[in-house]
């Protein structure tokens, strides 16, 4: 589906959209060589396929290069659902430089609680790599509070 270039989103609109349709979670990967499981922090925004254009506008607004995945309807629970479009962000740099600063202390209600629990979980789960645990350490050191744009000086 082609993105409507006139579709201009605001930061607050995206945060509201994520409050209802997004989640901060973990994907589980298995290392084929060691057969060990690893958890990778992930931000997901999923909506019915009819809103694909809207989801496509989110990474464009945030400066992400992530593609939008289309999933067939899930019917495993007997409920009729349509196909869905999903934005998945798992890359370390995107989480550190874009996702965490964009949502940190800017969400309301349950989604704000889920976001903070997600950050805390990164620091305590043994299945999360040290690289992703560093996101937790940046949060605990107050980098997102004191220097919210600290990652900009590292960009080229």
Quick summary of this structure?
The chain has helices at 11-21, 52-62, 92-103, 109-124, 130-140, 143-146; strands spanning 22-30, 37-48, 68-71, 84-89. By secondary structure, the protein is α+β, with helices and mostly antiparallel strands.
Report mean pLDDT, rounded to a whole number: 89
Fraction of helical residues: 40-55%
Run of helices and strands: HEEHEEHHHH
In CATH terms, the superfamily is Homing endonucleases
What general outline do the C-alpha atoms trace?
globular
Count of individual domains: 1
**Radius of gyration based on Cα positions:** 16 Å
Q: State the helix count.
A: 6
In whole angstroms, the N-to-C terminal distance is 31 Å
CATH fold node name: Endonuclease I-creI
Structural class: alpha+beta
User: How are strands sequenced across the largest beta sheet?
Assistant: 1-2-4-3
Q: Assess the beta-strand content as a share of residues.
A: 15-25%
Which runs of at least 5 residues are low in confidence (pLDDT < 50)? Answer: none
CATH class (first level) name: Alpha Beta
